[in-house]
Amino acid sequence: MNSALRGLGWYRGRPWLASALAGGGVCALLAAGAPAANAATSTGAPPLTILTPGANNGNGDIFLAPDSGGNYASGPEIVTNTGKVVWFHPLPTGEAATDFRTQTYLGQPVLTWFQSGANGAPGMDVIYNDHFQQIATVHPGNGYQPDLHEFLITPWNTALITATYQTTANLTSIGGPADQTVIDGVAQEIDIQTGKVLFTWNSADHVPYSDSHVPLPSSASQPWDWFHINAVHLDTDGNLLISSRHTWTVYKVNRRTGQIMWELGGKQSSFTLRAAPGQVLDSAGEIFAWQHDPEGLGHGIYTVFDDESNGLVTLLPYSRADTIQLNLQTHVATLVKSVDQPEGLVAAATGNAQTTRNGDLFVSWGNQPYLSEFSPSGKLLFNAELPAGVATYRAYRLPWNPPAN
Fold first, then answer.
1. 27 touches 349 (CB < 8 A)
2. What gap in Å lies between CA 230 and CA 27, rounded to an integer?
3. Under DSSP, is residue 4 helix (H, G, I), strand (E, B) or coil?
4. How far apart are CA 306 and CA 349, in angstroms?
5. Quick check: is 404 in a domain?
6. How many domains does the chain have?
């Protein structure tokens, strides 16, 4: 069995996820909540087994939100790089958390995550203070639906979030029906204190449906998740980086006007894609595919978590975290380095790659239950494994020093 299929083990106990693989809507459906716990469910956090100890470098604790499919409790968790649990917040049965991390809000350290609702109830973004008390929630505005992928607090104390919008579209120009149900990807900036929508970007206003790599459904009434937004980040110049899993594209978007400034990857890439010596493009000639988590590091350098699979199709036999150099004058994007999944596995969904404060790269391997840290030269410094059937949407290494009780 290849590693893409092995990765599907995460979907056992998550039938609502497995059934979405054919349509490509895997991780969006996490927002529907975790399954009901079974009789053997543990109320404790799933253990993190350290495979390669190390990375004792002051980068902080590990922030993750394990979703166990019912075998353990699900919820936001902080652990040390030796596997010791610092804090775990088990969620009610049927709920799950994603994108758990520490951020700064109104000058103070806080804990943030997206929390799904049980039994199909809408989810919300949550803020806790450093005394582990809830102080705020954030919801999308203008009738859009909550989405699990992103909750980023800006330096000016607003929230960047992802959302979705289900509507119908005339797709006759690409061989589809005139009334196809579609799911558009939405990014919003929200005033946390008032809930006011400050900015909205809808994929359908800027990206043609023909850019999607997802086949049209057999029925017009079946929702077509053609875009699948999975990140909205700030680039170093204050504009936005928006990632679409299903167009294989990272879009740089003007935060004031919403206009696309450039596209990296996909069918209308602004850049010629190249691989530096020792690096390879995938079998589709792309630097990444089904990707997550673009991060701007400055000087035209970006990192991207590169899934290279949707669970059914695989373009490389392993997932990786890519470092890409953009040349805006020559319009060339070069894959300058990458780190591969240490066990040689490919992730069918989710994942992230965080550049830590000392320049290491901390990687959560998506639906594969592994977390790793690499030096800037690509040396594996740390590797850990969650139990079989447990995974986390993202994971981070961040400093966290709450006041003593």
1. yes
2. 9
3. helix
4. 10
5. no
6. 1
Could you give the 3-state DSSP secondary structure of residue 292? strand
Task: Measure the CA–CA gap between 231 and 305, rounded to whole angstroms.
Answer: 11
The amino acid that residue 136 corresponds to is: A
47 falls within a domain? yes
- Is 377 buried (19+), middle (13-18) or exposed (0-12) by CB count in 10 A? exposed
Q: What count of other Cβ atoms lies within 10 Å of the Cβ of residue 401?
A: 10
Per-residue pLDDT tens over the stretch 355-399: 999 999 999 999 999 999 999 999 999 999 999 999 999 999 999
Give the model's confidence band at 194: pLDDT under 50 very low, under 70 low, under 90 confident, else very high.
very high
Q: Return the CATH number at 74.
A: 2.120.10.30
Range of the domain at 313: 3-398
Q: In 7-38, which positions are buried (b, 16+ CB within 10 angstroms) versus exposed (e)?
A: bbbbbebbebbbebbebbbbbbbbbbbbbebe
Going across the sheet that includes 301-306, the strands are 272-275, 332-340, 320-327, 301-306, 292-298
Which tokens hold the place of 12? 């056992």
Which residue type occupies 203?
S
Burial class (CB in 10 A: 0-12, 13-18, 19+), 325: middle
> In whole angstroms, what is the distance from residue 250 CA to residue 331 CA?
15
As a dihedral over the C-alpha atoms of residue 339, residue 342, residue 344, residue 345, rounded to 10 degrees, the angle is -90
Q: Which amino acid is at 367?
A: N
Does 79 reside within a domain? yes
Single out the residue of 1, 2, 4, 18 nearest to residue 346, CA to CA: 4
pLDDT at residue 289 above 70? yes
Question: How high is the pLDDT of residue 41?
Answer: 54
Centroid of chain to Cα 150: 7
Query: Chain centroid to CA 214: how far?
Result: 19
265/281 Cα distance (integer angstroms): 11
- Locate tokens 């106990």: which residue? 13
Nearest alpha-carbon partner for 206 in 180, 244, 173, 177: 244
Q: Is residue 405 part of a domain?
A: no
Q: Cα(352)–Cα(348) distance, rounded to whole angstroms? A: 13
What pLDDT sits at residue 405? 63
CA nearest neighbour of 330 among 265, 273, 267, 287: 273
Phi, psi (5° rounding) for residue 172?
-65, -25
Which DSSP helix (H) or strand (E) runs through 396?
strand 391-398
pLDDT tens readout for residues 56-66: 999 999 999 99
> Is 353 within 8 Å of 341 (Cβ atoms)?
no
